Amino acid sequence: MVGNPNVGKTALLNALTGGNFTVGNFPGVTVEKKEGKTRVDGREVIFVDLPGIYSFEASSIDEKIAMDYILNEKPDLILNVVSATNLERNLYLTLQLAEFDVPVIVVLNMVDEAEKRGFHVDSKRLSEILGVPVIATVAVRGKGIEELKKAILSGGAQLRVSVANLEDRIKLAEKIARSVVVSCEPAASIDDLLDEVFMDRHLGIPIFLSFMWMIFVFTYSVAEPLTTFLEELFNELSDALTAQNGWFFSLLGNGIVAGVGSVLVFVPNIAFLFIALSVLELSGYMPRAVYLLDGLMSRFGLNGRAIIPLILGFGCNVPAVMATRAIEDDRVRIATILVNPFMSCSARLPIYVLFAGLFFPQFGSAVIMSLYLIGIALALTSALVFRKYLLRGEAEFIMEMPSYIMPSLKDIWNMTWIRTKHFIQKAGTVILVMSVVLWFITSYPTGDVEGSYAAMLGKALQPIFAPLGWDWRLVLALISGFVAKEIVVATIGVLNVDVAAIMTPASAYAFMLFTLLYMPCLATVAAIRAEVGMKWTAFVIVYSFSLAYATALAAVGVGNWLSSI
Amino acid sequence: MFLVFTLLTVLEVRTSPLNAFVLLTVAATYLKGGIVRRVSYEIVASLIASIFAFLELLVVGVSGEFSYALF
Fold first, then answer.
1. What are the pLDDT digits (tens) for A1-40?
2. What is the mean pLDDT of residues A448-474?
3. Which residue on chain B is closest to A225 by alpha carbon?
4. Predicted confidence (pLDDT) at residue A133 exceeds the cutoff of 90
5. Is the dihedral of CA A500, A217, A521, A234 positive or negative?
6. Contacts of B43 in chain A (CB under 8 A)
7. ipTM
8. Are strands A43-49 and A34-40 parallel, antiparallel or unpaired?
9. pTM above threshold 0.80
10. Residue A263: its H or E element
């Protein structure tokens, strides 16, 4: 399946295979190929959904992935998914497919959207011109899928038209589009109506910030009763287990339940955050945010296309780093990767909820939002520095606006569940193992925490953090957080630290800032290394630690000064 | 509606400045709709206000603390 970004390839894959791959409503959702299997008339068919591309010039990584796949894997058939809403631009890619010597079926998707905008595409005429079957579909509603399956079984055909020259290809795409697009009465456009306000020069940014604030209220305040319920449940379970004698019950109660439970209690916050982000992503609002912020981004040496990886970073930095593959310009891409860990991923949320709830109960949502905003501000400032001194050069981008749609509950659920499941799986794997390790190093060799291996390690490193006012247990939590940020909370749970007794609000805020910035987690480090190599990975580790230390120190200083006046 | 939401903004600002910011944005959207005489601004302002009201009702449902400048 080959096509431009945001033409509905993943929705088509889901419609053909009954799968539940994550569908977005903005370009660049698919950055790696996805596979789905189904049986068509008794025959097994494997579909491969390639990243959305505009051409085969191989200037970006996703274009290279798509081209290498077709050249090396030699698929039986290419399903060229084109959007009926922008046929001319889509046909430019279609004409390039003639070079691959593989049968093609053109899937004319989103025909309903085209009609809403006042035009109709004559699929029969298009098929005659190209010499291949053209099937009209509305993938999100399953329309035209049965006809497409029949066409797949008949095998497609070689494209009749082929143009080697770039300018001639543009001209031919324009000519074909003109001959098959027929005007009709446009439906009243809700897109124009909403865009007039959402992209208003004066109101666009305040509206965007209002939505952001509502997301934090939803994530923090509305999810709170569920979080409290889970917290009480795990506390009861931990107490019941530790009441039994023996090392095994100590491991279960003080290690596994205290560690894993202290992370799992934040699943409602994570899920609520993902519900809100899914609604924004699926509705089509997100690319408008990209447009609104493009002017701002370009002042910091990035461009609007960097927004998508940065926003994905709120979920998890690993897919966000991979999403930078859609950025054509290498310097912008590297800068976006380097600053991505400053976008506050969902794994940091448990830390914020814990500390904000304890030290700033009245302003929890505002404190958490301030951390997200500081992360964004430091990411943009860092990008400016990198682009000015390390990664110089101009960069441009093109992005189209998808239509607004009312997200379906199924798509919201899929997107939320896939992301939340990732968080729960981590709790059942890496956090479980780390909880056992933490239990061991806090229980041995002496049996009490003060004389344990963990205390030795924490106390040895604590002097580095003494100016920030954190004791060795918090230092140990930060060290273990390098594996995965949720383990910071797990460590505090295993060590049974009464943070309210050993910290001031200023040092607690500094601690949250430090965990936001200090180092990407192990999985993100691995993703950065795979994308940009060891040199930049080492750089980002040293840079983020230095920035975190300086920022936390400044926060403690300002906090102490404020409390003294 | 502009005046109603401006009043709500003033009442809310001491309780929650960020809630007040949302209300001010709604008020400003209504105001611009009135100035440029476009119904789209009134529709979007009402949409944002409805989402925010629903959210605040959820908050009161789970915490018993209602704001939105009414209580």
1. 999 888 888 888 888 888 766 555 555 555 567 788 888 8
2. 86
3. B62
4. yes
5. positive
6. 193, 197
7. 0.91
8. antiparallel
9. no
10. helix A258-264
Buried b (16+ CB within 10 A) or exposed e, A399-436: bebbbbeebeeebbebbbbebbebbbebbeebbbebbb
Nearest by CB to B25, from A207, A218, A221: name it: A207
Q: How many Cβ pairs closer than 8 A exist between chain A and B? A: 65
User: Does the distance separating the beta carbons of A206 and B25 come in below 8 Å?
Assistant: yes
Distance between CA atoms of residues B67 and B47, nearest Å: 19
**In one letter, which amino acid is A99?**
E
A209/B28 touch (CB, cutoff 8 Å), yes or no: no
- Listed residue (A130, A108, A132) closest to A121, CA to CA: A108
Are B28 and A203 an interchain contact pair (Cβ–Cβ within 8 Å)? yes
pLDDT tens figures, A514-561: 999 998 887 788 888 888 888 999 999 999 999 999 999 999 999 888
Range A207-232 average pLDDT:
86
A290 and A400 Cβ atoms separated by less than 8 Å: no
Angle at which helix A364-385 crosses helix A204-217, to 10 degrees, equals 130
List chain B residues with CB under 8 Å of A364: none
Long-range pairs for A96-102: beta carbons < 8 A, 24 or more residues apart: A96/A55, A96/A56, A96/A169, A97/A2, A97/A159, A98/A158, A98/A159, A98/A161, A98/A162, A98/A163, A99/A56, A99/A162, A100/A70, A100/A71, A101/A158, A102/A70, A102/A74, A102/A75, A102/A76, A102/A77, A102/A78
Residue A536's H or E segment, with its range, is helix A534-564
Structural Rg of chain B based on CA atoms: 12
Distance of alpha carbon A290 from alpha carbon A303, whole angstroms: 9
Answer whether B5's CB lies under 8 Å from B23's CB.
Answer: yes
The mean pLDDT value of chain A amounts to 84
Predicted pLDDT of residue A186: 62
DSSP characters for A134-178? EEE-BGGGTBTHHHHHHHHHHT-B--S----SHHHHHHHHHHHHH
CB atoms within 10 A of CB A377: 12
| Cα-Cα-Cα-Cα dihedral sign, residues A421, A427, A428, A430 | positive
The pLDDT of residue A58 is 62
Burial (CB count within 10 angstroms: exposed 0-12, middle 13-18, buried 19+), residue A381: middle
Contact A213 B55 (CB under 8 A): no
Tell me the per-residue pLDDT of A234-263, one tens digit each, with 9 for 90 and over. Answer: 888 888 888 888 888 888 887 788 778 877
Angle at CA of residue A326, ends A545 and A161, nearest 5° = 165
| Distance in angstroms (rounded) separating the CA atoms of residues A127 and A223 | 53
pLDDT at residue A28, rounded to an integer = 54
Q: Are A309 and A336 in contact (CB under 8 A)?
A: yes
